[in-house]
Amino acid sequence: MGRTRKGGRIAALRRWVLKVLVSAVLLAAGLTVMEVVLLRYIDPPCTTSMAWRRVRGLLSSRGYNRLLYEWRDLEAISPHLRKAVLAGEDQRFPSHHGFDFVELGNAVRQAVRAGQVRGASTITMQAARTLFLWPDRTLLRKGLEAYYTVLMELFWDKRRILEVYLNTVDWGSGIMGAEAASRRYFGIGCHGVTPSQAALLAAILPNPHRWSPVRPGRRVLERQRRILRDMPHMPDV
User: Which of 43, 49, 207, 213 is the most buried (most CB within 10 A)?
Assistant: First the structure.
């Protein structure tokens, strides 16, 4: 009889723990969905990535360096820059649903053939990472990145995704978004960049803390030429 009561208590405890876990998961899912839906209509004053950098800067001995960040609506961003970023970062952005399996397959084949590992993140994945998540590379963050990517593609249109990406992407040390990058590097607003300048800005995005659009090396210039070649084939988003 004692064993029966003990077994009943253990079963009840398991049911309670399961209920708590399920409730926590459902609550977290509801909150994240609400977060994504709200940011479909509200321009974020900052991103999780920016907040993370500020905290780390305040805790470091070097102190906190102010981030340059100025929001611009998509219509105020040069179409040259929009097309350059599509050409350089995610050419199938208008047609995929957050994950570019063609590019992912190409990256895997290159890694197997040449031993070179390169990213295959789409614009949606990069925007999800910058807007909602911390910068450290962990399996948990990759999983959440995929989750937020699905939500963004479900609740946002492509124009909003591109708008958020262009305003929040890391474009160098303390430089966040297209307006800050255009003013920092070329002294003009992002509405006025030329095709050549736009291609240079897009060319450094894979490594903005080591590459410069005003002092471009050979690799950046090669990427600029390829982006300029592909820009006329990019659709208007």
Answer: 213
